[in-house]
């Protein structure tokens, strides 16, 4: 009988340890967002020592109540913390296309809820407020990243995540949301 009691104690301890590990990821994510928000308010500083990312702006979709810090560098580490600008694309508000990418199972799940005509407010580090309107949505093959290009060379943003949204595992499709300048 004492062996059975000891076995139950061991299982309870292991269960408590596993539960604590399960809480670590959400706590880390919450702390990370707080640090990114502070780094944004401080003008784009490095959010923590060794980070290969910096905030460059904040996007907001008022209808959905969504706000996201946008990072400067779409590396694996950066995208674990939030959406990021794809290298080689323009900064939001510049003439041309800005591509912002993020994971479908976390930071970009809201893309599925966007509707044509939705307003995006993008705030730069210096406080400038830019406005964009959702123009189109589409699913494409992962190698067909050709943006939905407008005829004029105006500022535009394309938000990109994997498709289908909220699924796990490999996929060969991407979900694109195209926004045009409303400034």
Give descriptors for this structure:
alpha+beta, Sortase, Chain: A, eight-stranded mixed sheet, 8 strands
Q: What does this 3D model show about the protein?
A:
The structure is a single chain. This protein is of the alpha+beta class. It has 2 helices and 8 strands. It has an 8-stranded mixed beta sheet with strand order 2-1-5-6-8-7-4-3, with helices on one face. A hairpin with a 4-residue loop joins strand 1 and strand 2.
Structure, briefly:
This protein has two helices and eight strands.
How many independent structural domains? 1
The SSE string, one letter per element, is HEEHEEEEEE
What is the number of helices? 2
> Quick one: how many beta strands?
8
Q: Which structural category do the helix and sheet elements fall into?
A: alpha+beta
Taking the alpha carbons of the first and last residues, their distance comes to 75 Å
CATH C-level category: Mainly Beta
Helix coverage percent: 25-40%
CATH superfamily: Sortase
- Unreliable stretches (pLDDT < 50, length at least 5) are none
Instruction: Kindly provide the radius of gyration, computed on alpha-carbon positions and rounded to a whole number of angstroms.
Output: 20 Å
